[in-house]
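Troubleshooting log. The previous structure file for this entry was overwritten by mistake, so regenerating from the original sequence record. Sequence copied from the archived sheet and checked twice against the printout by T.R.
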Amino acid sequence: MLTGRAMFVDDVNLPGMLHVAFVRSMNAHGTLKSVDVEAARAHAGVVAVYTAEDLGDYSKPAPLLVNPPPIPGHVFHACTPLPLAKDKVRYVGEPIAMIVALSRYVAEDALADVVVDIDPIEAVVDLEAAMAPGAPLVHPHLESNAAAHVVQRKGDYATARAAADVLIKRRFLYDRGVAAAIENRAVAVEWNARAEEMTIWDTTQAPIPIRNGLAKMLGLLESQVRVVAPFVGGGFGPKIMMFYPEELLLPWAAMLLERPLKWTEDRQENFYATTQERGQVHESEMALSRDGRILGVRDWFLCDTGAYDPYGLTIPINTQCTLLGPYDIPNYDTEFTSVFTNKPIVTPVRGAGRQHGVFVSERLLDIAARELGIDRVEIRKRNLLGPDRFPHNHEIMFQDSAPLVYDSGDYLPTLEQAADLIGYERFIREDQPRLRAEGRKVGVGIACYVEGTGIGPYEGARVTVEPSGTVRVATGVGTQGQGHFTVLAQIVADALGVGVEDVRVVTGDTREFHWGTGTFASRGAVVAGSACHAAATSVRGKILDLASVVLGVPADRLELGGGRVKIAGAADNGIAFGYLAGRANPLRGAVRPGTEPGLESTAYFGPDRGSTASGVHAMIVEVDPETANVKIQRYLVVHDCGTIINPLLVEGQIHGGVAHGIGNAFFESLVYDGQAQLLNASFMDYLLPTATDVPSIETAHRETPSPFNVLGLKGVGEAGCIPTGAVFAQAVEDALGADPRIEIREIPMSPNRLFELIEEARKS
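Regenerated output below.
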């Protein structure tokens, strides 16, 4: 990557390659009356133009990616998009026609030649208005815009509420944002008609499921389709979505035209055509005793699923589960309605619904602390689960279709360490009063979270010792910059006793490995790493068994190191792995029945439930009350992701997550008008945090190994962004003097919105 030799999808250039552009709906909601493409077909350099009518039987709704967990009584209406819109459009950016041309320039020019006639329908934008009687229906075959309804309960909240000394009831908003990966989506396809083989280069986080699904839809064997996810410039969740229309259409057209095709999304398209996340409205209540003990929580919320719901209920179920945090909440009543709107499709973006739950519970605790006169850290300490409570069954169901069980944790020392490192007591007793006396508005925030990670179903790995002595590792997960090459190499190197530099890792190529599900939900190191460890352990056994025969000593007298096997205590250097690899694959001669050739093993790991990481974030901010600008002075993360393989990579994941979280908390806001037209679809208008906005991030690590895998691993990919909105809101409130007239109950809290809150407080 540093030398510029890394290949991304847009780097794929093949002889005779054609280029694709899409005509997209300019209306968020409307009846598609006609699509006239004749002028575009006559445009010089245009090879083909396709509409839904041209697709024939291929024009079918995309498969449902994630089925809802078997929660009793749940309601779910699956509505997935067609490859190209037919009869109706449901969001701005929905593809209507596909243009194939000799160059992208020609394809883009020909877009203007397509005449689309749409009869507009009132757009469904606001979640609550969408559920009102008489609201326009996004999907007319349904009785309402409710996509799903789920209720989960533990204990008896009504009884807890009746016994409470204090009830904290608030309304919370958490609005939309984009993933804004540095590399937009892209697809390139080559169909070899003579060999009847297809190669697809895709910016996907899940190459194997993409292969499986496309093979089925195209009428091919899975072995005829090769999907390569090369270097990918950031995924953050939307690139796990399948199947995007572009992924369905380019392979189909490549077979028809017998020419290679490529499409690369531009940045404006990315604001419409790539999935988004975050939109929720919560009505929440927390019941507490006067000493600050949580007796129960009631949370009812609406969740925006956009125009379709191919990703099932992953996001709102994550919200339900993550709201519980590290706290002892004996009574919990949670209910959500997922709502269709005329906005782009919602699928997970880094955090995947967890931010919302943490924001609700942490904000309720902040308000309870203020009303009860209890310190913010102290009220959290009183409610943390103790280390003797694990494994802890929360009874409700998680997204992996298993009950939400916390495997391990030690929350109190994490909170205490964070408070100590940020200087919480000194700040509120000394620094803050001194700075306020100087007229400066400074505040501190501290928030806790638990993150479900490392879910199944499974991943696999193949470990091979080559005759050269190099160890080769192949796995099905794709990589988008997380450091998989390093981490997986470390795991295998440690198991085999070789140097990391002697391990070559291959990921994201279905020709290299055939089974797996993908990179998502902070699971790469946990699930694929465990599979790599299992395969390497098996190869280690084969090395010892063969060396035992070659050296004529029992295996338990042998030791591995430096890519060699030697007799323990012997003066010689033993024999090299490469030599043994050659011996394990003889060209002639008899072998013992049951002998497997080579020093190679394939293994799979599938956890029966996810592992739970946890942590505490703390922040010190200064607010300019005249401009509502917020300067983050310090940001601290104390995180527990189980056994740490590579501290530097863990810190990198946390730093990236915090930057993402800061953007979601303060800078980033998608602005839609009343007809679901996005008003800020460019980086000129959609604010992303830059290097000058993100402070130096301090980190500390704790290790509570997971009992669910042999390495004790937990995930870390999303931890940096999950509590950021909550800790930001708390710190800004504190900076403004904990004025009860200023209560931050919405995210993003943009500079403009914060200015409005400050002005409203001044006038009240």
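Residues 58 and 199 are 20 Å apart (CA to CA). Archived copy saved in two places this time.
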